[in-house]
Amino acid sequence: MEKMRENVSVAADFLKGLSHKSRLLILCKLVEGEHNVSQLIEFTGLAQSSMSQHLKKLKDEDIIDYRRDHRTLYYYIKDPSVLRIMGVLHDVFCKK
Q1: Which of 12, 17, 37, 43 pairs as cysteine with 61 (C-beta 3.0–4.6 A)?
Q2: Concatenated DSSP letters for 65-88?
Q3: How many domains does the chain have?
Q4: 85: Cβ–Cβ under 8 A, 6 or more apart, which residues?
Q5: 61-96: per-residue pLDDT in tens?
Q6: pLDDT classification of 11: cutoffs 50, 70, 90
Q7: Is 77 in contact with 31 (CB distance < 8 Å)?
Q8: For residues 76 and 1, what is the distance between their CA atoms, to the nearest angstrom?
Q9: pLDDT at res. 95
Q10: pLDDT higher for 85 or 16?
Q11: According to the model, what pLDDT value does residue 96 have?
Q12: Torsion angle defined by CA atoms of residues 29, 35, 37 and 39, in that order, rounded to the nearest 10 degrees
């Protein structure tokens, strides 16, 4: 029972990173594959400064990462658990 309580706490912290509408929208796009900042801004309609803050938060939480191609950064979902969860959310809510 103690281990379950610890895991619930970890799961709650994990879900906090996914629960913000803008971050969730970013992850919905990234579940389709990697995208650069311009593509994410176009998709979400967020301002550059807001996008940078959300990407930083997702990166700090080890949810996403990026690869550099010259001067362009391509973001992708790094955490396999997030990729699985977002795949389900994408199937349920985005493919309608």
Answers
A1: 17
A2: EEEEETTEEEEEE--HHHHHHHHH
A3: 1
A4: 18
A5: 899 999 999 999 999 999 999 999 999 998 898 876
A6: confident
A7: yes
A8: 35
A9: 75
A10: 85
A11: 63
A12: -70
CA distance 64 to 36: 12
Give the tokens for residue 8. 């619930």
In this structure, the number of other CB atoms found within 10 A of the CB of residue 25 comes to 17
Q: Buried (b) or exposed (e) across 32-68, using 16+ Cβ within 10 A?
A: eebbebeebbeebebeeeebeebbebbeebebbebee
- The amino acid occupying position 66 is Y
Q: Which domain holds residue 27?
A: 2-94
Q: Is the pLDDT of residue 12 over 90?
A: no
